[in-house]
Sequence to fold (268 residues):
Amino acid sequence: MTPKPLTHRNAAPYRPLDWTGEYPPAFPKGSVPAHIAIVMDGNGRWANRQGLPRIEGHRAGEATILDIVAGAIQAGVKHLSLYAFSTENWTRSPDEVRFLMGFNREVLQRRRDQLNEWNVRVRWAGRRPRLWGSVINELQAAERLTAGNDGLTLTMCVNYGGRLEIVDAMRRLGEDIAAGKVKPSAISEKMIAKNLYVPDMPDVDLFLRSSGEQRTSNFLLWESAYAEMVFLDTLWPDFRRRHLWDAIGLYVSRDRRFGGAVDTPTAR
Ligand code: IPE
Ligand code: IPE
Ligand code: MG
Fold:
């Protein structure tokens, strides 16, 4: 893609996608996961291991986000969802929560022009209650700025929880039922999916987590029902596009059966 001319609105320095000089391996045609969801984990440990406060790990993770978005575009991924702040993260110290709120706002401010240059469409998945108004404003500004882009869809999951997403969908459906618009017997998987935060979000193909933890931590529960899980030990601030490509390589080598089966007895 050739960069758009710089205007006062997108005057941030433009970085080409391949500024690191790296290119993804040639994955077989059609094999790259359409939707990758990432639990960006390990910032606190990365910082503490160097004798730094946890927030320095979050700061260092900003560069990783940009590198991973670029690497995803290079690999031909269409949807990338990043877990930036969970509904459980409010239990952290007030200082860390305050830092993370301000940081999310600033990262969006600092990076939205670059993302726009890369033809990225930014979306927000999460709930409003408790989330700082200034963060919601930045998320919506990024959504507006990039609404016309048709490259990678980047869903920032901020104040997101998988169970609460389903609860919120149930509340909306419940209202429709109470208003007589929907019959309980008509409720289907499709109808529930349509009431999630981003109704047209496709199912997750590859669920990736950094830092070595092997759990979902309530991320995209409904959407990841049949996702392939990949857990890498690298901490998020050390995570780079080649780790993403390694994960895609593992995904490509998996046999996705979706409950089906093929009988192929081999003689010994
Ligand atoms: C992930 O890193 C970032 C957020 C949850 C916001 P952590 O802050 O969870 O870092 P660790 O897992 O404690 O090392
Ligand atoms: C999940 O990571 C949330 C985000 C990455 C935003 P956590 O570090 O909060 O999850 P747990 O506590 O290890 O389950
Ligand atoms: Mg963590």
